[in-house]
Amino acid sequence: MSLLNEILDYNEKFVEEKHYEEFITTNLPDKRIVILTCMDTRLLELLPKAMNFKNGDVKIVKSAGAVINHPFGGIMRSLFVAVYELNADEIYIIGHHDCGMAKVKPEGIIEKMKARGVEESTIEQMKFSGVNLDEWLQGFDNVTDSVRHSVDMVRHHPLMDKTVPVHGLVIDPKTGKLDVVIDGNKDENR
């Protein structure tokens, strides 16, 4: 049995037995917060629990390393939708210690792409299309600096409401301890 079939079998029972009822909520975040965090598997349940959030409290956007690498990419669009359409009044950028993006090197990813069948000519074509793969795939050296960078991109974006506090934090993926990098409520941070 494939993993997809296992998931679908479980899902059928989940729906039949109405386990979904405990998760019923609206599409608007009760606590009026949107969080950008990493897609790391250790944070799936830990981060909301460490912050005392339950289903329906917040919007959560995930990206590798909680990084915003383009001011007009999908991550920024999601943050704008959360603020302007879904009533989020605060933004939290939450990176984490021991992040895989701190170890990511573009040449390693490119080699793995080739090993999985991506042709060298396709990789070369990216360069001619104006995509700098080395820059686009680059990880970061320091999670605190990375969080600061993402906070700055949001805070200084010309389309962002300047009254929305943008906070930067780093979570320990083992204990859930949060360290504040930037308190968006302080005037010097706006």
UniProtKB/TrEMBL annotation:
Question: Which metal ions or organic cofactors does this protein require, according to UniProt?
Answer: Zn(2+)
- SMART domains under this entry? Pro_CA
Which CDD domains did the record assign?
A: beta_CA_cladeD
Give the enzyme class.
Answer: lyase
Q: Which Enzyme Commission numbers does its entry carry?
A: 4.2.1.1
Cleavable signal peptide: none
What does it catalyze?
hydrogencarbonate + H(+) = CO2 + H2O
Q: Where does Zn(2+) bind?
A: C38, D40, H96, C99
Q: Which InterPro entries match?
A: Carbonic_anhydrase, Carbonic_anhydrase_sf
This entry's Gene Ontology molecular function terms read: carbonate dehydratase activity; zinc ion binding
- Describe how the cofactor binds: Binds 1 zinc ion per subunit.
Would you identify the family this protein belongs to, as annotated?
Belongs to the beta-class carbonic anhydrase family.
* Protein name listed in UniProt: carbonic anhydrase
> Whose protein is this, by species?
Planococcus citreus
